Amino acid sequence: MSVTDDSAQSPVGAVGRITVPIPPDGPGEVLVAVRGGSEAYAAWCDRPIATNVRVLVTDRVSARSVMVEPLPD
Fold this sequence. Notes:
Order of helices and strands: EEEEE
Strand content: over 45%
Shape: globular
């Protein structure tokens, strides 16, 4: 049995675009380019973020959920 290193597949550090706005009290959705394609993740932030805002993925909460921060304009 081999141990898989999924660091190359991690969305952390990738830039994405918000596709469903992040409200103050729940997740939105971010589309991130990973593994040669685009994948959608549930996106969390400590402040609301509008649709189409470019963000940086700062942490992975679970396999399909990430923390994001808006990129500077």
